[in-house]
Amino acid sequence: MEAAELGNLAGVRHVLLVLSGKGGVGKSTVSAELALALRHHGKKVGILDVDLCGPSIPRMLRAQGRAVHQCDSGWVPVFVDQEQSIALMSVGFLLEKPDEAVVWRGPKKTALIKQFVSDVAWGELDYLVVDTPPGTSDEHMAAVEALRPCRCLQALVVTTPQAVSVGDVRRQLTFCRKAGLQVLGVVENMSGFCCPHCSECTSIFSRGGGEELARHAGVPFLGSVPLDPELGKSLEEGRDFIQEFPKSPAFPVLTSIAQKILDGTPARIA
């Protein structure tokens, strides 16, 4: 497709939709940490937060309260670091007050998502990570429709180990098949609790649900991210977990997932 037809997405090499049919599984956590891990692999990353009713990415990256400006090409995303290696767009930047609720019907949500895709001046990006709300509703269909012109559009599915979550996430994989989305892999989040004192990992929920889901669906299993107090604290404080906690039990899992994504996304042909 010609660059003129792609518009502001012309410089984006890969688009990765982070999906789950279940709420509370940690899609935003995975999106934020994946962006940081890809940045530490030397990639330039954008994050599009289309979880319109629960925009948490700005806080996780210590960017809340920042303003969005206009340029000739549209909206300028918020850069979370001085090197401008991570660009972020979220409805959280457009709210007058941080506690303001987004009470919108489907058509208004759909229109904003399409505007985020078409009117944000992303520039040159190696990866655009799209953090989505739970389910398979208007927001997901709008995002897929708006991003479909990108040739390297893939999905990353997040679950937790227990059966009730895996069952809902299985429906998300069905959505991907119906929408024609290639699934890059499944990530199991909250996969056991790692004690900060003795490093023993205890399976608080059940175990292995994500890997079993990936096996049944015939898609790659990318890894199991444990419950890690240091990871939770870094997200609360908007710190760079990948840089600051290399000895954390979650660190090798997250960097391994990022490497598998790099290996599974071939260079785009210009």
Describe this structure in words.
There is one protein chain. The protein has 270 residues and is an alpha/beta fold. Strand 3 (69-71) and strand 4 form a beta hairpin. The relative contact order is 0.18. It has 10 helices and 11 strands. It has helices at 3-6, 27-40, 57-60, 106-119, 138-147, 163-179, 209-217, 229-237, 241-244, 250-264; strands spanning 12-19, 45-49, 69-71, 74-76, 78-79, 86-90, 125-131, 153-159, 182-194, 201-202, 221-227.
Q: H/E series, N to C?
A: HEHEHEEEEHEHEHEEHEHHH
How much helicity do the residues have?
Answer: 25-40%
Radius of gyration: 18 Å
The end-to-end span amounts to 10 Å
Low-pLDDT runs of 5+ residues are: none
Say what oligomer this is.
Answer: single chain
Main β sheet profile:
9 strands, mixed
Structural class: alpha/beta
Tell me the overall shape: globular
The average pLDDT is 89
Number of strands: 11
Number of helices: 10
β-strand amount: 15-25%
